[in-house]
Amino acid sequence: MSSSSRPRRPADPLDIVDVDSLLTDEERAVRATVRRVCDDLVEPHVAQWYEQGELPARELAAQLGRHGLLGMHLEGYGCAGMSSVDYGLACLELEASDSGIRSLVSVQGSLAMYAIHAFGSEAHKEEWLPQMAAGEAIGCFGLTEPDHGSDPASMRTRARRDGADWVLEGSKLWITNGSVADVAVVWADAGEEHGGIRGFVVPTDTPGFEAHEITHKMSLRASVTAELALSGVRLPGEAVLPGVTGMRGPLSCLTEARYGIVWGCLGAARSSLEVARRYSCERVQFGRPIGAFQLTQAKLARMSTELQLGRLLALHLGRRKDAVGLRPEQVSVGKYNNVTKALEICRTARTVLGASGISGELPVMRHANNLESVLTYEGTVEMHTLVIGQALTGEPAFR
User: Fold this and answer.
1) For residue 311, is pLDDT > 60?
2) Active-site residue, from 95, 256, 306, 378
3) Which pLDDT value is given to residue 399?
4) Are residues 279 and 205 both part of a single domain?
5) Do 129 and 146 share a structural domain?
6) What is the CATH number of the domain that holds 376?
7) Of 45, 126, 216, 311, which residue is 20 to 30 A from 393 by alpha carbon distance?
8) Which of the four pLDDT bands, split at 50, 70 and 90, describes residue 347?
9) Domain harbouring 38, CATH code
10) pTM to 2 decimals?
């Protein structure tokens, strides 16, 4: 076959159906800016952070805040007020570097800041949101408990009235940013007479509040994870979030954060696919690049197709979110599909790389390990399956 008659590869082999053509120039500019930030601040260090199980969270948050990435999709109070699609593209680029970095930004902006922005008093917003947007204060979100993950309504953390004050007792587990946070949004059962589940804005220097970092993790090692212990944490009456009662509060925050995961996990998948694609073109066995063999091409084709379908789904959900908002089951479809497919892409990419795939010199095994956590947190794959099933049948299968 002559060189002129050979089929040409697309300009971007990771976007052979031209999903990028659906983005505006402004959206592509946002993506490029976040990619440069990650290249400068994260990529030179993240493999070492992961290997050592450490993250300079406070320094990194301050740098990300200076670039407007914290709470970027929120309006006012020092937040950038970007679109949902802009935020999704940012999450994708952040997670292309590491899921732990996207988790830091997601918990800060879509859980802690969103809870205060959506349900807090004006005093809460003015005190905390500008600091958090700038990265001068770090937030965490205390919902999951040692015995209550998928069933947060059964939480044991209690809030009781004592005169004009609230007193919190309980514990929370697997809390991202917990041991470096300046403020925690803690959910507790206040009893039916006070609205059931309530959220509280808790400065972490309040007596009785303790945070203990969780170590020896095999996943999300470039992320701070902690257990929170609340023992007689006394708060003024105005510490409660006035804008919501019941489980609607924490669940709406989780829906907000899950939307970022729909995009973010595709960053890990894209990074892994690109490493595998490039390696397949360079690695020679039996006298030819392994990318010339049919089985390798089948893997690459499957990975590429799933990545592009995931991007199309994420972009559709982002456009809908900006236009009319999203229903929880729509976000569940996004997280269920994109995280499972992203994890499959990372695992398959590892097989293309052979033994090199387990090396920390390449990001693929790190991405795969991280996605094992992403598959579970903010709603396990099983729970999202049941959310979708209920939407299809009208029958709840949770109990």
Assistant:
1) yes
2) 378
3) 76
4) no
5) no
6) 1.20.140.10
7) 311
8) very high
9) 1.10.540.10
10) 0.95
pLDDT at 5: 59
3-state SS record for the chain: CCHHHCCCCCCCCCCCCCHHHHCCHHHHHHHHHHHHHHHHHCCCCHHHHHHHCCCCHHHHHHHHHHCCCCCCCCCCCCCCCCCHHHHHHHHHHHHHHCHHHHHHHHHHHHHHHHHHHHHCCHHHHHHHHHHHHCCCCCEEEECCECCECCCHHHCCCEEEEECCEEEEEEEEEEEECHHHCCEEEEEEECCHHHCCEEEEEEECCCCCEEEEECCCCCCCCCCCEEEEEEEEEEEEHHHECCCCCCCHHHHHHHHHHHHHHHHHHHHHHHHHHHHHHHHHHHCEECCEEHHHCHHHHHHHHHHHHHHHHHHHHHHHHHHHHHHCCCCHHHHHHHHHHHHHHHHHHHHHHHHHHHHHHHCCCCCHHHHHHHHHHHCCCCCCHHHHHHHHHHHHHCCCCCC
**What is the per-residue pLDDT across 156-165, written as a single tens digit (0 to 9) for each?**
999 999 999 9
Is 378 one of the catalytic residues? Answer: yes
What's the domain count of the chain? 3
Domain encompassing residue 37:
19-133
